[in-house]
């Protein structure tokens, strides 16, 4: 399961995808309180994540790359390296799709 290797401080995760998709294609609703962070260890080799910000501003780190994504933006990034999503300037509501290779 994807979330086993993640630490979630000040965030709430709800899985939206069917259980039989676990480990292949997972969809989450992500709510992160201001100052909160979802910090994840690398998933399986070739895994990718697609993060769409519904509300708020998110800080994203994937390996050495860092970016800021705003409401309505989608970021696609490698998830087979350490990666983290944090709330900047208030809470964040997002959809997160995890695709394992």
Q: How many whole angstroms does the radius of gyration measure?
A: 12 Å
One letter per element, helices H and strands E, the order comes to EEEEEE
Proportion of helical residues = under 10%
Major sheet characteristics: 6 strands, antiparallel
Mean pLDDT: 92
Task: Sum up the overall morphology in one term.
Answer: globular
Keyword list:
mainly beta, 67% strand, 101 residues, globular
How does this model look, in words?
It is a single chain. It contains no helices and 6 strands. 0% of the residues lie in helices and 67% in strands. The model has no long low-confidence stretch (mean pLDDT 92). It is mostly beta strands. The protein has strands at 6-15, 25-40, 48-62, 65-69, 74-78, 83-99.
Write the layout of secondary structure elements.
Layout: E1 6-15, E2 25-40, E3 48-62, E4 65-69, E5 74-78, E6 83-99
Brief account:
It is built from no helices and six strands. By secondary structure, it is mostly beta strands.
